[in-house]
Amino acid sequence: MGLFDALQVESGVVAVVGAGGKKTTLYALAARAARERSNRAVVTATVRIPIFDREVESVTVTDDPVAACERAESWPVGVVPGREGEDRYLGYDPTVIDDIAAADAADLVLVKADGARMREFKAPNDREPQLPQSTDTVVPIASVGAVGKPLASEHVHRPERVAAITGRDRGDRIRPVDVARVLASDRGGLKGVPDGATVVPLLNKVDDAEQRAVGEEIATEVLERAPPVERVVLARMIGDEPVVDVLEG
Fold it and tell me: Which residues in 96-112 are b (16+ Cβ under 10 Å) and which e?
């Protein structure tokens, strides 16, 4: 199954949250949108995002992303409001993403909606995620590689938030059920999801049979704990064919 079919994405605003594969998921969708769907895809963010010029045809730094998209001649493109230092772009206010969606300036708007500081697993703080109200699909992401690691800042962004959701102590080994609890929680993967949006969690770094078994255990728990979630995608986002499996409730 292809990535679009697995995530049930054809068009609209897709926001990725969590940790362990947000950017690679965005860039994979952007590339496939042009190649497989002939879609006008734009990559952007509501939070800081590392420089991603190599992942798209062009990046425009602008206060008017709608006009930038309307001028685009080749896709996918990136739009951002500014740059911070040498390695990061800034993100738009979520209402600006709503403006892009309302203008029909692109077929697919791909949004990085929170940060994780390169960790494998996270739970959001009070200001996260920054989800536009126009979001059609939310993809909460976690890496199966977090399982077995200590619940500590070396591996987890905001470990105190994960501990609060799971009831675990800092330093405890992360279990599959802990990842599932966060992804299925309205303080975790379901936090701030706009009414009517579809939620499709993605478990990344499913690199071998052992990791696939871990991913299946997490996915099964998520489907049992989160009635709004109807499917969970297991993936290996660095591969040419990233989808490993799709589990459905």
Answer: bbbbbbeeebbbbbbbb
* The one-letter amino acid at 146: A
pTM of the shown model: 0.97
Q: Is residue 2 part of a domain?
A: no
Cis preceding linkage at 76, omega within 30? yes
Q: What's the domain count of the chain?
A: 1
15, 132 Cβ separation under 8 angstroms: yes
Looking at the predicted structure, is the pLDDT value of residue 246 above 90? yes
Confidence band for 240, pLDDT divided at 50, 70 and 90: confident
- Amino acid at position 205, single letter: K
**If you ran DSSP here, which 8-state letter would residue 43 be given?**
E
Average pLDDT value for residue range 137-157: 97
pLDDT at position 36 is 86
Does residue 95 belong to any structural domain of this protein?
yes
- Residue 50 sits in a domain of what CATH number? 3.40.50.300
Domain carrying residue 57 = 8-243
For residue 111 the two structure tokens come to: 């949004």
DSSP one-letter string for 49-100: EE--GGGSSEEEE-S-HHHHHHH--SSSEEEES-EETTTEE----HHHHHHH
Q: Is residue 213 part of a domain?
A: yes
SS3 (DSSP) at 111: strand
Residue 168 forms part of a structural domain: yes
Is the confidence at residue 128, as pLDDT, over 90?
Answer: yes
